[in-house]
Specification:
This protein has about 750 residues and is α+β, with helices and mostly antiparallel strands. The protein has five domains: about 180 residues, Hypothetical protein af1432; about 150 residues, Beta Polymerase, domain 2 (2-Layer Sandwich), CATH 3.30.460.10; about 100 residues, Beta-grasp domain (Ubiquitin-like (UB roll)), CATH 3.10.20; about 170 residues, no CATH class; about 80 residues, Alpha-Beta Plaits, CATH 3.30.70. Helices cover about 50% and strands about 15% of the residues. It has 28 helices and 22 strands. A five-stranded mixed sheet has the order 3-4-7-6-5. The longest helix has about 35 residues. The relative contact order is 0.05.
Amino acid sequence: MSALDFPIANVTSTPAAANAAAASFAALTAKLDYMSAEDVNNVRTAYRFADEAHLGQIRNGGLPYITHPIAVAQQCAEWKLDAQALMAALLHDAIEDCGVTKPELIERFGAPVAELVDGLTKLEKLEFNTREENQAESFRKMLLAMARDVRVILIKLADRSHNMRTLSDVPRSKWNRISRETLDIYAPIAHRLGLNATYRELQDLAFQHLYPWRYATLTKALARARGRRRDVIKRVQSEVEAAFASAGIQVHIYGREKALYSIYRKMDEKHLSFAQVTDIYGFRIIVASVTACYTAMGVLHQLYKPLPGKFKDYIAIPKVNGYQSLHTTLVGPFGTNIEFQMRTEAMHIVAESGVAAHWLYKATDPDSDASQRLGTQWLQSLLDIQQETRDAAEFWDHVKIDLFPDAVYVFTPKSQIMAMPRGATIVDFAYAIHSDVGHRAVAAKVNGEQVPLRSELHNGDVIEIITASVSSPNPAWLGFVRTGKARSKIRHHLKTMALSESQDLGEKMLAQALRAEGIDRERLSEDDDAHHATWEKILRFSGNRTRAELLTDIGLGKRIASMIAKRIVTLLAETGEKPDPLLMSRERYTAHESISQGALVLDGSEGASVKFAACCRPIPGDAIVGYLGRGEGLVVHTDDCAVAKKLQHRDSERFIAVDWSDEPTRAFETGLLVTVTNGKGVLARVASALAAAEADITHVDMGQEPAQDATDLRFDVAVRDRIHLASVMRSVKRTPSVLRVQRAKPGV
């Protein structure tokens, strides 16, 4: 049973039921005229196996259960899918509902068919906390199978289509969930893969069951409108046929009616009444060649006036899902707006069948692989995301973003067209080109002008990404990127980088703890056979699999370095190795001095593994202490910080000695509270004084209160150390209108 198949019951099979099933298979065989006799025989064998497996099972509507797999196979046959796909469609519920095993399917029908069936089977045996998580996990398996073989998703969509057609047989309490799932998951996938007929049907069926009253009201309104506009449509059709006949162009003209859900969504989004929706009716013009498409448009534009801004060329720039057509909206008789779509027969097949068109083309041109590439970039990007994202809910978030392809088209400097989701930024574009380009991006030019990396893309932009080898992703990028690929790549890189930095910090902390016990870390080599056994015992003691994992845990605060060091000393003593008394006495003698040789030295290059507490914002020159938070890495506080004092009282064993390097590698942020006499240009003068003292302003807060005679300005500034801060404060104090300058403390 698939994600939406219905509860079944075992009953005694009846002749009537058997006749119904046989008649259904006869209807399927009538659609297999494109297959060889051998393939048809294989499909019949799969049918007999499925019929036997589902014997006695009845669907909610009262029909034998086998009618469902047959209906799914019929839809696949309309797409001209191959015999393996139709066999999988007939067998798609066999593993889950009938106790059939995958090895049994491999033995009976071969590995390819069994893999397709397995890809369609739900993860029912696994337990999840929430229904949404279960849905995300099932969807992940489905998409991965799709990325390996697109036939899986085609069968899945055929399965969902038949289930939606028979949704009225299901208890009404389930309609809302099933219809919402169809709108949120399956219809967008069908659209992304170019299965437009299925996309429209799924939307309309979901709309019918999600909002039955609205559906009925719109159906009646559309029927009335159809009657009122019949004369207009007939007149337009006859005039268009006459125009093409006089131009000597052979065309096929088809009327097109906008789908009910599309009408409803347009009314809802644009707050229109039914009468205000002007493009309910339209025509498709099928011509012989691409050139004839443009010629046909010229004929139509001579016949009726075009609406400005309503022309779209999806032939020169196809949609993401491979759709190609010319669209133009014309003002017909009596001022009626009518949309025309011009396309070739091949474009029409792709427009209706999308990636399924691959099999349609195969029937006539086995060497054609043009349609096989449809949608494959998107499928591959989903596979990339899954490989880096093991959490089902996170993967689901990534995919939902990519499911709605309202695209903008931009150009690389070499004029290659790239389609990006609407709202995508420069960073999304960089990751779309290559992961390394995204990771190393530092700046960008759009149409020759430099712009911020968070800038949104617009149609026609020419984008150049500027990279630097030393650059790496900024966590702030996660706040504005739109594509799942960019988000997953950034998160993966940051996670990997954080673990690497935590390992380096753990190495430093263990070396410090060992020195305090009189052991030189360099003496304790992992390559040495004698010490290798010691490390094995330490890993068993700590419960870690590898030395790198142990060091990472120490850096993250999950293990205490001093405890590991004491255990190492005990193990070394068992092998006859003793601590160095001179090293131990030197470390312990200086442990309480202002400059401790045993302290962990910080220079600002430690990255995400070391955080400088926001409550006290230490800078080089401040007396500091280090708190090893559980799983948070090392948090550095000033030694007089109230928060640190509370933690020390409660959790003293997690504090370690830390000290500043003589040469910090970067500037550090701190706060300044500047009290000024309110007046014209005072903010500019203070900012100028800060700049003159070489302090970078990172934030300014003037408060929410109305300006008084004396006003407080709060600045966040980046300085090198306390000496630099004192120089900055003197520079500001000398500025006219400044009454007082002080370093901002928490709560001040």
